[in-house]
Amino acid sequence: xxxxxxxxxxxxxxxxxxxxxxxxxxxxxxxxxxxxxxxxxxxxxxxxxxxxxxxxxxxxxxxxxxxxxxxxxxxxxxxxxxxxxxxxxxxxxxxxxxxxxxxxxxxxx
Length: 109
Hints:
This protein is mostly helical and 109 residues long. Helix content is 53%, strand content 4%.
């Protein structure tokens, strides 16, 4: 059985006053979805080219390399765009904070 969470905690279950915590968890969900979309686009770029040639053929290898290069080149721009849209600021210590000063919630123990 899980330990009860205080009201307002981002990990509090349904029926608790979790509105303040829900606002803090927003950038975390956006980060998870962004990470998942980058991973899927990377893997998807390997299969975007349909070819009757085997995967070990030099032409297929070059096409796949080009696709991965494009996706890898776009990834930093997408991360920057996500950072700008969500209002996350990175401090010199490396921890991310939103404009409201909240951080992603810690994992429950």
